[in-house]
UniProtKB/TrEMBL annotation:
Name of the protein in its database record: 3-hydroxyacyl-CoA dehydrogenase NAD-binding domain-containing protein
Classification lineage: Bacteria, Bacillati, Bacillota, Bacilli, Bacillales
Annotated ranges, domain 3-hydroxyacyl-CoA dehydrogenase NAD binding: 7-205
Every 3-hydroxyacyl-CoA dehydrogenase C-terminal domain range: 208-307
Similarity remark: Belongs to the 3-hydroxyacyl-CoA dehydrogenase family.
Length: 309
């Protein structure tokens, strides 16, 4: 393998996709950032007389994600000028451009079927030699590429970045059954040397290592809070800055992660554990499900455990 990574494509321009694109841009790598085509016009687009087939509408999600990088704190980019290395686009018009990149990173919603469908489309345009990885929080790497060719699968693995990608050093790398061992070594070296990551190799077990442990801790904390009548603020006071952990207050972290994503992650491990005692721990509390169905998704929707001002 031993190839250089100069160009990448990130598919999915949400919290993580935009942050990963920013980190790649910071490292000098030019990056396509692709998302789905919007199905509805915004009020501003309607007022401007645009139609759904206008390129600015079709590319709106990734374009808005890049604009969002300038407003996010802590800053995802070393400097705003680095954003010039990120090119926004949409999947329908621009997916074929992945034939020209060295690394494709899938960062769409945490749903096996959505990821499988996307990887089927990716393989149509993929050229051997290009690495393809998923940023899944815990869905099986092997299941994601079922039905794909052996050659594609030999180039595929999990690269689990943490939020926010520029600041979190940990990167879990999860090889699939067929991943080329040389590719694992090369990509690990690249992520350590060029992206400054600390790589931990994980097995393809539900939620890998970090989210298996982390989800356990968060769900137990949430349940204890409700049963014992603690408040969100009290729990954050004893798990955050006052405890010498400036970035890790429990519910601030969940708002940053996204409550929908956290629910998907909890449901994934619940669906995959067999032991009854483990099922009890990993069953998502009703209160969390209700928050998500109400659209309380955390910082990205403006309301989660905290209201964003
Ligand atoms: P998000 O909800 O912020 O963004 C998801 C993006 O995917 C959206 O922009 C959406 O339009 C796009 N999308 C949805 N369906 C698509 C499709 N079919 N094709 C292309 N794009 C599609 O989610 P996120 O928090 O960025 O999470 C993305 C992935 O990263 C998930 O697998 C998640 O588990 C993982 N992850 C999230 C975090 C976190 O802290 N949020 C941390 C590590 C890993």
């Amino acid at each position: 393998m031993n190839k250089r990574i100069r160009k990448a494509a990130v598919i999915g321009s949400g919290i993580m996709g935009s942050g990963i694109a920013a980190q790649l841009a910071n490292a000098g790598i030019s990056c396509l950032l692709l998302d789905i085509v919007p199905q509805r016009l915004t009020d501003a687009e309607m007022a401007a007389g645009l139609t759904l087939d206008h390129p600015s509408v079709r590319n709106r999600l990734a374009t808005a994600a890049i604009a969002g990088l300038f407003k996010t704190k802590p800053a995802p980019l070393y400097d705003n000028a680095f954003a010039e290395r990120i090119t926004p686009g949409n999947l329908e018009d621009h997916l074929a451009l992945i034939a020209d990149v060295d690394w494709v990173i899938e960062v769409v919603v945490e749903n096996l079927e959505v990821k499988q469908k996307l990887l089927t489309q990716v393989e149509r345009h993929w050229k051997p030699g290009t690495i393809v990885s998923s940023n899944t929080s815990g869905i099986s790497i092997n299941a994601m590429t079922e039905g794909r060719s052996e050659e594609f699968r030999s180039h595929f693995l999990g690269t689990h970045f943490f939020n926010p990608p520029r600041y979190m050093k940990l990167l879990e790398i999860i090889p699939g059954q067929m991943t080329d061992p040389e590719l694992i070594q090369d990509l690990s070296r690249f992520c350590e040397r060029t992206l400054g990551k600390t790589v931990v190799l994980a097995k393809d077990t539900p939620n890998f290592i970090a989210n298996r442990i982390g989800t356990y801790g968060l769900l137990v904390t949430l349940r204890e809070m409700e049963e014992k009548g603690y408040t969100v603020e009290e729990v954050d006071a004893v798990t955050g800055p006052a405890m010498g952990r400036p970035k890790s207050a429990t519910f601030r972290t969940l708002d940053l992660v996204g409550l929908d994503t956290f629910l998907h992650v909890a449901d994934n491990v619940y669906a995959n554990v067999k032991d009854e005692a483990e099922k009890v721990v990993f069953a998502a509390p009703e209160s969390l499900k209700q928050m998500v169905s109400r659209g309380w998704l955390g910082e990205k929707s403006g309301q989660g455990f905290y209201r964003k001002i």
